[in-house]
User: What shape does this take?
Amino acid sequence: DAGVIQSPRHEVTEMGQEVTLRCKPISGHDYLFWYRQTMMRGLELLIYFNNNVPIDDSGMPEDRFSAKMPNASFSTLKIQPSEPRDSAVYFCASSRVEAFFGQGTRLTVV
Amino acid sequence: AQSVTQLDSQVPVFEEAPVELRCNYSSSVSVYLFWYVQYPNQGLQLLLKYLSGSTLVKGINGFEAEFNKSQTSFHLRKPSVHISDTAEYFCAVNSGTYKYIFGTGTRLKVLA
Assistant: This one.
């Protein structure tokens, strides 16, 4: 298996633009997680899904953030409109027991 | 509610010396415990896990950890570190709900 695949690896966008991050989990994993990592706040859980259903989105910072999982092999995290304080590395992870992480998307909002 | 505390934000150690990275957790229910390693500009990679059974678990790259229920600890150890072990290490807990709680990380710097 190729592991958890995230795209793009790097994204630079202007404030106010819409940003979409993508994730392909490991086949057979029924949990999917979105995390955000910053120097100030460390690793924060934004939302997680079980069998494509959102279970806990209490970590989503505000309404500008939304996540979907239309099927077992694809998920998106969307930020609209983006702001400079959204700059961070966003990780997707999937699991059956232990979580496996993607390489992350480094988002820079200027 | 669960929480994870990594007491040391940075640990410098000389090459070939032993190292221990500390992790304490709090939970009112049984937990699964994990250690992850993050190299610069990469995602988190699983080092080892405790699910049940033997309290001493061995992982990749010569690391091991011991689950101590009475002290609610899961410290990570390596008897002899290498320069390539320089990275950030995260302890995580999961109570079976699959909601992972991560510690704030310990930056291990191995000195030549």
